[in-house]
Structure formats: structure tokens, C-alpha cells
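In the current project phase, our protein records have gained a C-alpha cell line. A sample record follows, to show the layout:
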Amino acid sequence: MTVYVARDVKGFWSEENRPEGSKSIGDDVHQKLLAGEASGKWINWSTSPPSLKDPELNVNPATERVWRDAALIKPCAVRDRHRDEQELLIPTTLSPERYVELLEHIQKLRDWPQSASFPDTSQRPTAPVWFPEQT
């Protein structure tokens, strides 16, 4: 079966219902586009023939700063608890090594808006693996 595409009308069409001005594409191109779309890529309908592209990041720097500000609350609370425990001369919940990891994570969150990958949400600083058990 021959598959058709049109630049102005996104989608795949058969001979019977193809839009005016559409062009045929080979089955290999059609299958490649379907497989790419299934794997999370987008179809770029403006090229001839259509091609695949990575999804566009629709991120707003202001929104990402809000995320960062909220992400600082829990680790800062854990840091404050550790400092309070030290000042009270009671055993600390965190080991010295984990405390340093926590401080490094807090610093990465602070530096996030100035990093080259900001505001790409896939590049956000991640908490240490042990951190969720502390909250």
C-alpha cells in the first residue's frame, strides 16, 4: 500500500483519502516514522519527506526556579536538624559523610539556575540516594 503525506495536513494518508498536494513516501520511511514516534520522538512534518526530531523542551525558566526553590526546602530542613543536633551535643542523625553529601546537593540546587543546562528539567540536580529516608 502506498502511503502519502502532506506538508499542510499532518498524518499519513492512503490513495483514496489523500489531501491535494500530498506526496508518496516509501514503506521504509513510513515504518521508520511510526517507530520513532512510538519511541518518543516527534515527526517533523515540515521536511520532505517528514523526519524525526527530539521533543522540544517546553520549559519556562521562572517555573524551573519555582521548582528549585521548593526542592531546597527539605534538604535545608535536614541540614538544620543536623546543625541543631550538633549544638545540642546529641548524636546526629546524619553521618559526617552524608552531611557533606547533603551540603553538596544543596549547593548544586543553588547553582542550578546558573548552569549551562538550565532550565532543562532532565538535567535537574538529584538528591543523594539515601535522602528520601531522611524526610
Remarks:
- The chain has a mean pLDDT of 88.
